[in-house]
Every structure is written in C-alpha cells, then in structure tokens.
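4.2 Preliminary Data

To establish feasibility before requesting continued support, the project team ran the inverse folding procedure on a target of 152 residues. The structure was first converted into the token representation described in Section 3, and no sequence information of any kind was made available to the design step. The complete token record follows.
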C-alpha cells in the first residue's frame, strides 16, 4: 500500500446514479462505448479506464454516483458526443494493486481500509479502480489499481 497524489486528469466520461446491486449493467458496456466515441471524435486516449465511486459504502442497496472515465487529451476541436468532457481534480489516496481475478477486490478494499484506520486517516468518500489490464478470458491476468481517497 502506498499514499500518493494523483494529478488532475482530463477525461471523457459517463456518469450515473446506481447501486452495487445494479452496477453489472454497466460492465463491458459503457467503457466500450467511451472508447468508440473517443475514436469517432478523434480524441487521443491517454490512459486506461477508471471507475470512480462517490458515496459507495460497500452495501448492495446504497445509491452512489458512478463515473466511468477514459483519460483523453483535451480536444482542440468541437466534439459531438453523448458523453461529457471534464477534468478530474487532484486526488489524495492510498492505493494497492490487485493482480488477478476481481473476486479479490473485497480483500483489497478491506486491506486498504484497515490501513486507513490504523494510520488514523480520514476517507474522502471517493474510491477509484483503474483497470490497467483486463482479460475477461483469463482473469488471473487482470491488473487493477484500487485507490481510496483520503482527506489531507
């Protein structure tokens, strides 16, 4: 686990209100649409897809804001997109990489929140998952960076 500051990132993104119980409808759907839309609008993709959870507490029924974001270079031209361009602000966080199946996400979050509590840090209410490598056929090859926001 490490503590770090993520610098602002310009993204093309999808936002919605959802719950963990309803979130599967966006998996393998919105990210693909974001990639297609970025290419169609001649945007330069500059990083992997982010899933950002604002207000999620791990409970299946809690409604929170989900942002699925694709880093892009700010365009110099007008784009025609159902998605929004925005800048993610600087983000203070503790992070840990998960290598393998996403079934391990709960353990990774547990480890990070345990460390936050032991170090008496204050969670910001925003968590991010950065999908560095996604392999749906061989999930043991997945690499996911989990970031939990902290108040500085």
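Position-by-position output of the design step:
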């Amino acid at each position: 686990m490490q503590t770090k500051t993520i610098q602002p990132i310009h993204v093309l993104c999808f936002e919605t209100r959802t719950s963990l119980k309803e979130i599967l409808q966006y998996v393998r759907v919105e990210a693909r649409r974001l990639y297609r839309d970025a290419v169609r609008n001649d945007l330069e993709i500059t990083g992997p897809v982010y899933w950002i959870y604002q207000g999620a507490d791990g409970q299946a029924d809690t409604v929170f804001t989900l942002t699925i974001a694709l880093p892009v270079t700010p365009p110099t031209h007008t784009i025609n997109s159902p998605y929004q361009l925005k800048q993610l602000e600087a983000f203070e966080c503790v992070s840990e990489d998960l290598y393998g199946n996403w079934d391990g996400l709960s353990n990774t979050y547990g480890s990070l929140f345990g460390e936050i509590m032991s170090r008496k840090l204050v969670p910001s209410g925003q968590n991010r998952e950065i999908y560095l490598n996604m392999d749906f056929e061989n999930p043991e090859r997945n690499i996911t960076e989990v970031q939990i926001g902290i108040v500085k």
